[in-house]
Design goal:
Elements lengths: L2 H10 L6 H11 L7 H8 L8 H13 L4 E6 L2 E5 L6 E5 L5 E4 L11 E2 L2 E2 L6 E4 L2 H5 L8
Length: about 140
Amino acid sequence: MTLEEKKAELKERGILLTIQRSAVLDFLHGNTHHPTAEEIYQSLRGMYPALSRATIYNTLDLFKQHGLIQEITIERTKAHYDYKTEPHHHFLCRHCGRIYDVDVKKIPLEQEGRLDGHKIEEAWLYMSGICVACLQEGHDAGTP
């Protein structure tokens, strides 16, 4: 779904597209690093001085409820947000903390979306390790 389609969907559902909501959606659309709510707030507050953390959290929750974004909880202590809502997988670098989308081929499911007899409704794969950028800088698996 494109940015304009997501904005139109909000309007169709009777949700007022405020300047702040539009700014958050625009920010997420142009961001592939899966920011936290705090990172979104810090990035936007200079352009929108009246913007509050509560507005960011409420906006993210609203977008999540309507399926416009997804929340990624790859780290236990903080949630990250992803504009891309179709099923895909993520990689967390233990060194720099960046989260990357990764292309993993299909999970081998049995007939009718089952795995070992279980009916699979959603599958989210999270991996962690050291990203290629950190490896090129000389950080290895033993580096915290």
